[in-house]
Design goal:
The protein is α/β, with parallel strands linked by helices. It contains eleven helices and 14 strands. Helix 8 links the parallel strand 12 (about 260-265) and strand 13 (about 280-290).
Length: about 350
Amino acid sequence: MDNICRYGENRVIEPKGALPQYATRVDNNPVIYDNELLIDVGILNITSTAFSRIKRITGGDKAKIGDEVKRIVDERGKFQCPETGSGGILIGSAAQIGENHPGRADLKPGDKIASMVSLSLTPLLIDGILDIDTATDQVFVKGKGILFESGIYAKIPNDISEKISVAVMDVAGAPGWTAKYVKAGDVAVVFGAGKAGLLCLHEAKKRAGVTGMTIAVDPSAKQCGLIKRLALADEALQMDATEPVGVMREIERITGGRMADFVVNTVNVPNTEMASILACREHGTVLFFSMSTVFSKVALGCEGVGKVVSLLFGTGYTEGHADITFQILRENAGLMEYFKEIYG
């Protein structure tokens, strides 16, 4: 078929003229255009916020979770959370590479890859739900996915399992952005100790070095214990980030009033924006890497406390993010073992 649009606009059914991310319905016909890549899909790694919603409305029943995932995909031609607009990523193998797709020079049929663009814009066809892991937000399927000419992907390395690869690639942007902004001597604060937060903590501690400081904030005693055991942070605060003043005071105490040069928010619950802002020093940087973030709360909240900080809304992509994330697991044997325990 002829080369149409590198961003996939030709796949949009409703509304016409939109790009796939904002479309309510896309064409998931697995007959590809010559600038597209067809993938045999094996795993969907759904975003934490989207999967939490599905578990909530289904009561956590696996069969009902599978039905809801398939219902969304059948209705939209892609997986996109109706509430937050988030998706996740997929893992599978290259099935067919279009004549004008840029991956033609790099891929061959059968190569294992992870998509590095959201499921919320990726045409997806599910033939069947094979299994669901409610602990890891992973849905095992038989199906087809399509990447546009502009859609980035990462080859799965031989030394890291598929399950771990898809889990970490879903959040690779977070440690990638952290690597870009944290420098030697910085105080870095990471909110959330899920997979994104743990990866960010490793990268922040490495970049800040012995002259810097890394602080983790998470309400879970178990995760704070893990952080201490793996030496991922200088301080692990078991605190609720929806209570911003308490968090601010504790970080003020630990840093001697300096506060953070860089803050990254990776949590999957609402109303943590102000804790992130108050943890940061004047003219510092706050990165919101969470689909629970509400822009108006950030903008108006920052204004309301008279805080001058650089506000970043992290995308899932920045240069070298896949390599950075895989390298973290190679560098940190303890973190790799943890991911093996969780994802197998």
